[in-house]
Structures
1.
Amino acid sequence: MSRPFGALLIAALLWCACTGPAPEEEAVKTRLATGPWHMVLDIDSTRASLDLPFRFDLDSVNGHWQMTVRNQDEAIVADQITINGDSIRIRMPFFDSEFQGVIRGDTLFDGLWVNYYRGPDYRVPFIAMAGERPRFPATHGPANTDISGDWEVHLITKDRDEPAIGIFRAENGRVKGSFATETGDLRFLDGIVTGDSLFLSSFNGSQAYLFRARIDGDRMDGEFRSGYRWKQTWNAVRNPDFKLADDETITSLNPDHPVAFSFPDIHGTVRSLSDAQYQGKVVVMEIMGTWCPNCIDEARMLREFHERYHGKGLETVALAFEYKDDSTVAMPALRNFSKRLDLPYDLLFAGSIKRDSVAKRLPFLDKLNAYPTTLIIGRDGEVKRIHTGIYGPGTGERYLRFKERMENTIVELLREG
């Protein structure tokens, strides 16, 4: 695949040195190149290096730096960028992670990606280089196989075989796609097929994914890397008829407990399902977390539904379970999530994501299997549908069908009033 991380760093530093020295003040103050950049994360330095590449654009907007990470059709804008001397710090917009780097010249900076969700010591080396370049180099020549279509996938760990559907769209060697599982999808993956090899990657500030596989006709065998050093094997066979469990059958209610909640919103006001605001209404209740990328996809969809049907009797509410059961930490994250997505509905802090905490606060669910999980409640107060996970926009047609299915349920329930 790509050149080893260490070789990239040495080559880039030599290139900067050969361009001639510039006064330090000028080099760091001014001229980080704008336009396309290429970043590589070294996700396993125990093996010399293992490169996870992605593309971003760097721009100056009204005197402020802005980084836009690109994964196929997704654009993630990071606008909290601080440059101090030769140091650069880039905070990701939704997730508690950041890049801490050193500027080496107008076209290069390097350092560490720190993901605080995994602890303060979770640090992944990176190098960023200005200029347009392929996400992955076509080192093995043109693609031998068109992998477009659906594949039956098995993600394998020591004690588990998780089924999934690989959804790929290939054109001229470039591949866009995702993996749909029974608890959600792996969102926007971007890469290539070169020769008999597949390479896909994605980075969103929380997740750093790298898929590699060898293609043999209608079969693939490969490795999935997630973040720093975590890995599992996977295999796939072309199978357009393969199906996963129905997302409406995975999560069930506990009949011994009524569906209810009572949690504070982002302003500190306690909201309850028994409030007049929700009585006689169709209620979409999402169980989510601000740390969850799939929850961003669903929040955008629910915002669309809310704006379209609120005047006809739809209410929407999101119950957020966060990494820490500490409102001084969680509330700023909820406010940021709500503001960046311009949510017109209530976002409530429900507590910690620890299983015992969730079970205590949501006793009406037999078990919470995925984030997001969405309950649709009729005007009579009865739960009509439970959707486990989401087929997000990275899954293409599946997302459109999932969205249509949920919207049709909402419309039917509104008509019953």
2.
Amino acid sequence: MQGVKTMEYILIRHMRNFLKFIFWVVLSLTVSLSVLSCGEKDIPPHNTDQNDPSGDEPKPGDGDKPGDGDNPGENPETAQIKQLESWLENIQLKNGLLTSVESGNNVSLYDNALAALAFIATGHYDRAEAILDYFNSRVKSELCNGTGGYYQFRSVNGVPSGNRWLGDNAWMLIAINNYAAKVDPDRYSTMQKELDRWIRSLQDTDGGLWGGTDGAKVIAKNTEGMIDAYCAVCGYDDFHKNLLSHLRTKRYDKNDGLLVSWPGNKYKYALDNHSWGYCTFEDFPKSVLDKASMYLNTQRTTVGGITVTGFAPDIDRDIVWLEGTGQMVVAYQKAGDKANADKYLAEMKKTLIPSQRYDNCCGLPYSSNPGTTYGSSQLWTGADTNICVSSTAWYIFALLGFDPMEVTYSRGTPASD
């Protein structure tokens, strides 16, 4: 009898272990399907900062409606764009600004320029205007005050901080240029002219541009910012001619045929100089896109544990930088390289994650996994788990085949320059 009881005990224990195993298998499949569906919210919160922003509440709008993109007869790509845009709409504050990540407290000039461009690309001009109106109301008090330029960061209440960075201001001008071309050339003409004037004021005697201002000091010249500025300032005159001359003599490696990001350093080249250079400069060789293979790598995503291949910001190749991968897709589309454009667009789609706050909304994190940004600096906590504006915006651009730099591309640059 004791032996029978012992056998019963052993059978019961094994049955419990088997049931536990089945439970964890089902739970893992549920989490994976939630990530892929990009519409459910079964994943435990990954955001380390789940508190509401200390400023304005999210701005209400069409993005608040549950079920956007749920129409069975709707094109899957159209439905996906609706979910992406709905997320952007939901994080837009009453003052028009968007935080850089979901449930975040930081507002970035660059990210808001990208959000405005995303709203312009999808035809939601009122949303873009809410962003541009905010900065337009601060032309005198901020843009034209002190050393000039808009600050790189601000709180959700609009209190500015950080430097006045050339590249970020240039992207705001790129957003205005797109709005002027698609909607109304006059509404933001004053802001457009003042940003143009400030960017031109940063040109040094060697033709290069200072990277902006840090208090009373100028920021060192950087290639990425100079590409942005060349794109942002319309037309072609001595400003562009002298800047091209500087880039050719100081920031270009003739042997490699590439723009140099950090002369004399291990991190000589940077991914965005490939994609943005190709999209900005007329007749730039497609070989610069082929040579971006030096940044290709494969990682396993923090959210969902999915294998994804894409581009890192530099030769460390320790992350898939999703914003940068989106930039490369747009550049491939411009080059007519459909195979590579479609390939990396599909890779980006793998990394979509559902919003932790809003139904029927999704987006992309900044990176696939923890690692480093350009150079050796570590990414911030949550870069691989929280939906962010920059990657989501560039994914929208890629889905729509929208190149924000196209608006000023054809400027009649003389072949001799």
3.
Amino acid sequence: MKSFLFAALVGVTLVAGAVPTISNVSLSQETGSRNVRVDYTLSEPAIVTWTLETNAVANASEGWIPLPEGVANTCTWGDINRRVDKTGACTFFWGADHSWDDQLVAKGCARAVLTAWSIHHPPLYMVVDLFGGPCIRYYTSTNALPDGGLASDIYRTHKLVMRKIPAKDVVWTMGIPEDVGDGSYEKFKDANKSDNLAHKVKLTYDYYIGIYELSRAQWGNLMNTKTGYGWMKDNVSMQNAYPGGGQYPSYFRAGDTSAFCGRLRDFHGADYAFDLVSSAEWEFAYRAGEPQTLYTGLAWNSTNAKACGAVVSNSQTTHEVGTAFPPNRWGLYDMFGNVLDGTRDTGSPSSWQDREDYKTTGICVDPVLTGSGYIYRGYYLLQWYQIEEGDYWNACVTGTFNDRIGYRIACPVPNAD
């Protein structure tokens, strides 16, 4: 078998926006190996992603054909798919033998297409390593994820996949408006659940949110324990949604490394303000642009709610994250079922009515409510009867959390000064 991968190598650049810029792209192959080296010059700190394109003839007259993104991103190291906090000469490597074994382009050529992203306008997906030390990677889509994409268990056990939510400066309706026509308003009004009635909200930032509820294995891998507390039973998959088990949101939010979010912040620095999702962040991401109460746009009843995941089976067991029900239109799984999502908001969900910004402008800006008790969102398995009775999907818990309460992690995108 021939030892070389390409007969000719060239490089090109794409730029996301006016700045930053990439120039002087070159590719080479290490002698006697299938490792490909890419060198480039970066004008200012940025996030850099890439694709690899090949062609059957050297002059590219038949057009360029991209490799599957996940193939090109498997076994890369150096200044790629991450935040590059330097300027000038940069280098990364691709181990083609790990993801493109025995493939040759003996009579053609190949090129690397690099894209520079502003730190304030990063790619759609951020992946956080929970096991191998501080490492954050960025990808343009779930198809670009290495190691087989979302089909791989590593994204439910060892890595945390987060999707960017385009919320910055969008004024939207939180709660249940009277005119959506799906029957939900009448249910909630008749049950006197004024907590959930419509009000205007604006978030002044984009943010990343976990596409899955936190799994037991993800918690265990970051916190260096595989057994944890008594509720981690051997017969329950470590990929099942993480249950509260008596652990309040404050346990996840503490500023030191004894807490899940505190440890993430300590690993990755001030620009990565990992935290539990807020109630407003949760609902904006849940809706994914859908005005109806159910993110599918269907009428509010137990049948349609079950299709979103509010009921799994007649078992009291949570299911493996991201496996039982389709995602919403932004690719977020289990937003309406499996377990409830504990948030960083506390107090009464109706306290938005007392906020000064709402009283003066009619808009709650970046609301995070404070008070007694914890606010959780969504529904959990075996809760269909509460849907039928108009019980709320936005509630305050003052007692001990139980195995129906889980968590979803968020991280704001840094705003430009």
4.
Amino acid sequence: MLKNLFPNVYEGWIVVVASSFIMMLSGSTFFYGLSAIFTSLLIDFNWSVASLSLAFSLRTEVQGLTGPIIGLSIDRIGPKFTIVMGILIAGIALFCLSLITNLVQFYIVMLISALGIGAAGGQVGMAAVVTWFSKKRSRALSIMSVGGGISGALVFIVAWLVEFYGWRTAVQILSVYYLIVGLFFAINIRSRPDDHHQPIDGVDLESEDNIHHIAEGMSLRQALRTKSLWAISTSTSLCLFAGVPVILLTIPFLEALEYPKTTASIGMIAFTISTVLGRLGSGYLGDKYGNKLILVFGYIFVSIGTGLLFFAQDIYSTMFFLLIIGPGFGATIPLRASLVAEYFGTINFGTINGFVVFISTLGAVFGPWIVGMIVDSSGSYSLGWLISGIVALFAVPVLAIFVKPIDKHGVVGHE
């Protein structure tokens, strides 16, 4: 294990790095990578954009439905077992994707892969990371989430594999890469034991409370009685209504403007690089100015940038608008998890965050599906981008008007 190779490094940072690599793997294969085969599937099988988008949406919904179950598994069994099983399921499903011959098989494979992605995704890594940090929690989560941003830059490699070998062989290569590298890093992820010999945050203070840090917080039942949990969940869902279509459909959108796949992937690379800036910057700003405030600004950037894609006519204007969306979308990923831990504690973080994932995926499901239907009916992406941006704008007041619960130590305060 990595902690044995680096005994003088705070184990929390090892968990951060391992979780970041898992996010990079999941993003480069499933989250961003599969967008590179979107057009190939349309051409090979003559499917509609809406039917293909619906498959990706249903995958996201299954991830959401399993969110609370996965969260319970994290809290009761531990993140290591959960993430190892997730990688095995997702990796095998990815290989099976290369063997499909019809739409029904595609839907089945996508739904099975969703079970694995949910258990091997950022939800598990975040649940582990928040137990290792207190004052540096937002920064730790932002560094962890960088892996997801870097994964988008790897979509160029996926696009090259698809063009050079064909989409089936490319998917098989990705599945082997995912299984081998994923399992190596998965065994290094665990929650912080209460009696761990290293102090919380890795800072050697003299405080006994710091050395023997005990996880605390609300139960899911208590959290459900707060308006804050519903505000976080709903606002995240509204943001994903715009964010997920941008991730899934940017490459097909640029291909529709008659750019080749590898050139179109450059637009996604620009987007993901800008999300890295948002992920890193938001960690520092969240610790300094508050997670909620910076998260609201993130929602504003996503909404405005997505709406402006209505005016995109070439790759240059598209990239400019993506560079607005990227930092905002990147900021939402670590800050949402940090806000959940701040408001409701860490002892049941996996279960509570799983519920947030469950609710928030509604936007991730309907966003791509609705944009896909608009593309099929109008032949253009413009109106879909505009509607997505407007929907995402409602995330701002939904989150902004609610305040932190008074007590996270077992008794829920009135908000």
